[in-house]
Write a structure and sequence with these properties.
By secondary structure, the protein is an alpha/beta fold. The protein contains ten helices and ten strands. It is globular and about 45 Å long. The chain binds adenosine-5'-triphosphate.
Length: 235
């Protein structure tokens, strides 16, 4: 579904992503792991056109989209839940969800999807007309993911969905990601929390200082003590 080849991202002299190629098959859950500053967010942002690539090509759904705008990519079925959630705190929960559907004009479909997320997360229904900043961190993450889903993506990319959340909430988020896979979504998940994401991923890539240092199945990575210890701080 997504084939990114030889992607490089530079910020002036800083080479954040160096000649990285990744493949995400339809229906797959793929983890993109690596330490702080490895270039994970830069790679994700470049895939959705939020930061420019210096080199590389992106093929999505069999079409080359290397130079497509973010809006065009969203229309084609990509969506991203950014790091730190980036919900609009002064807007209501309902307004945040509406913004996720900005590219759509099918009112009935939008209403149907809104109901779906309000059923899934009753707290969002309860707070529908309150400013989103009053939600807890976990609730904001549920809202952020729901908002990304309001564009009805085929591929959802999540940047550190577990960041800063209590373990119980992290479990809920990952349970929700398993539900998304059952709905047929393809997921690319950037995480520092390797052990949790490897439980739900099919395959994984490990980035370190801008380069891929491991690619393989989630099982292979879990059993590869050296990579786990060296790059992910796990034994
Ligand atoms: P983290 O988990 O901390 O977000 P990451 O793996 O996502 O790390 P990036 O945020 O992509 O890594 O950062 C990769 C490198 O690029 C780092 O050295 C970072 O300081 C640098 N960098 C990221 N964004 C910018 C920017 N807008 N301008 C300049 N340098 C940047």
């Amino acid at each position: 579904m997504l084939e990114a080849s030889h992607i490089s991202v530079n910020y002036g002299p800083i080479k954040a992503v160096r000649d990285v190629s990744i493949d995400v098959g339809r229906g797959d859950v793929v983890a993109l792991l690596g330490p702080n500053g490895a270039g994970k967010s830069s790679l994700l942002s470049s895939l959705v056109g939020l930061v420019p690539k210096n080199r590389g090509t992106v093929v999505f759904d069999n079409e080359e989209v290397s130079r497509a705008s973010t809006e065009d990519l969203i229309r084609r079925g990509m969506s991203v839940t950014p790091e730190g959630r980036r919900i609009f705190g002064d807007l209501t929960v309902g307004e945040n969800l509406r913004l996720g559907a900005a590219i759509r004009s099918d009112k009935d479909g939008i209403a149907e999807d809104t109901e779906k997320f309000l059923d899934l997360f009753p707290i969002l229904r309860k707070r529908f007309n309150s400013a989103a900043r009053y939600l807890s961190g976990g609730e904001q993450q549920m809202l952020a993911i729901s908002r990304s889903l309001m564009s009805r993506p085929k591929l959802l990319m999540l940047d550190e969905p577990s960041l800063g959340l209590a373990p119980r909430i992290v479990d809920q988020i990952f349970e929700f990601l398993v539900t998304l896979r059952q709905w047929g979504l393809t997921l690319l998940i950037v995480e520092q929390n390797a052990s949790e994401v490897l439980e739900i991923a099919d395959r994984a890539y490990v980035l370190s200082t801008g380069s891929i240092v491991f690619s393989g199945t989630a099982n292979e990575l879990s059993n590869s003590g050296g990579v786990m210890e060296l790059y992910l701080g796990l034994e």
